[in-house]
Amino acid sequence: MADFSIPSDWQQLIETTLAFCDREVVPLENENRELLENERFRFDERGKLRLEVLELKRQIRRKSAEAGLYTLFGDPRLGGEDLGFEPMALVFEALFEYAGPGRTLIEDVVYPSVLTNGLSPVLNEMSEELRSAHLADIACGEVTLCFALTEADAGSDIWNMRTRAERVPGGWRLNGSKQWITNAPYADYCMVFAVTNPELHRQRKPGGVTAFWVPARQAGVSRDTVLPIVGHIGGDLGLLTFDDVEVPDAWVLGDVGQGLRLALQAINKGRIAIGAKCLGLAEWALQRAAEYAAHRTTFGTRIGEHGQVQAMLADCATDIYALKTMLAHLAWKLDSGRGGAAIKETSIVKVFGSEMACRVFDRCMQILGASGLSNEIRLEEGLRWSRSMRIPDGTSEIQRKTIATQLLRGDMKF
Ligand SMILES: Cc1cc2nc3c(=O)[nH]c(=O)nc-3n(C[C@H](O)[C@H](O)[C@H](O)COP(=O)(O)OP(=O)(O)OC[C@H]3O[C@@H](n4cnc5c(N)ncnc54)[C@H](O)[C@@H]3O)c2cc1C
């Protein structure tokens, strides 16, 4: 018989993570409520997070690292615990179900955007020189990173990448720019993907892109622009420009020509993390809506008694259960090695997760009437966040393209 119970050590991990939030995150949030909750205080006039907010985030990362949480899902080559996809999905789900949307400091507990920060998979093959100079600071949360792949004309179509790295004695010279990069305005170091073999890249063949480690404060790097999205007045997405930036050979991440392989490995992990985060947030939203439906009365009865409200609650639950089941199955496939790379299943979880979170938040807002539209209950924040998740780590259309391509190649088993 299949066993869906959560092993006690994973349950313990979930409890430790949530207890950490109660002990370390909530008191800091309470002390800094206005700064963290009100965007007019959280961001400066250029849309950047204020230094006080960045300092609070740094404190949480450091404490999380001390508690052994920050590096839980990193690769053992980097000193991470590499607990696997099943516990990763469970911890992210629990963390976001506990927190709900819009909690600025929660992201710093275990870095749910697994490719951007902390022990990013892009660092797995970093050189000895980089490792000894930077790994300790990354693992303790002192410094942060960004994953710089997308460009103005190279999003889904990464073969349009224009950023180039040319050979110079002892290293490489980078020129180009990147756009929509999470944490670019604040990162200490960038993991930058650049074309090193233009001919191969022009032919859309693998081997033409290399990943580089670039200090964000190095001469020639500029990154002043914040790119706010979905109605926010500031944010963490930014532009990066590289103007004759020289880096030594030891700052190549992995092998020359293997950048896209590293990027895709990281993005695949990111897709599963997005699925888990969508699941937790959708559960949080449904709890708010169900509580409201049980108390609010219209026409002399609780709104939860009206068939149309019941249908919305039931549709949310159906979406949530579908994602929960498919995420658990995907994580099991990957951890047990019985599903190969599970390419179509990973895309299914990403597209279904991000789209179902939009549906769930939208229905829950409807159930709360005008209160659902006010951001006091943070449903509106959740809808904006869910909407944004249909774009990164491969848009919904790119996921569907991947699923169909796999099917047409004969990958028909689930
Ligand atoms: C919140 C957020 C965080 C992000 N963080 C990062 C980051 O940290 N690092 C990074 O490098 N990038 C990041 N990105 C960028 C993201 O990866 C790109 O935005 C994404 O790949 C889409 O590229 P694009 O915006 O250029 O859209 P385009 O690729 O131009 O697509 C435009 C539209 O055309 C559709 N489309 C494109 N090609 C096809 C096709 N073949 N078939 C069908 N439809 C197609 C798309 O689905 C989309 O609807 C982030 C984006 C967001 C929104």
> Which fold name is given in CATH as the topology of the largest domain?
Butyryl-CoA Dehydrogenase, subunit A, domain 3
Contiguous uncertain segments of 5+ residues:
none
The proportion of strand residues reads 5-15%
By DSSP, the count of extended strands is 10
**CATH architecture descriptor of the largest domain:** Up-down Bundle
Structural class: alpha+beta
Give the bound compounds: flavin-adenine dinucleotide
Q: Please state the CA-atom Rg, rounded to the nearest Å.
A: 22 Å
**Largest sheet descriptor:** 4 strands, mixed
Mean pLDDT reading: 96
Helix run count: 14
- Overall spatial form: globular
Number of domains: 3
Please report the distance between the alpha carbons of the first and last residues.
18 Å
Short description:
The chain is built from 14 helices and ten strands.
What topology does this entry show?
Elements: H1 8-31, H2 33-37, H3 39-42, H4 51-66, H5 85-99, H6 107-110, H7 128-139, E1 145-148, E2 164-168, E3 171-182, E4 189-195, H8 198-202, E5 209-215, E6 221-222, E7 237-248, E8 252-253, H9 259-295, E9 297-298, E10 301-302, H10 307-336, H11 343-367, H12 369-373, H13 379-388, H14 396-408
Parallel strand pairs: 1-4
Antiparallel strand pairs: 2-3, 3-7, 4-5, 5-8, 6-7, 9-10
Bound molecules: flavin-adenine dinucleotide.
Residues 116, 147-150, 155-157, 180-182, 237, 388, 391-392, 395, 397-398, 401 line the site of flavin-adenine dinucleotide (FAD).
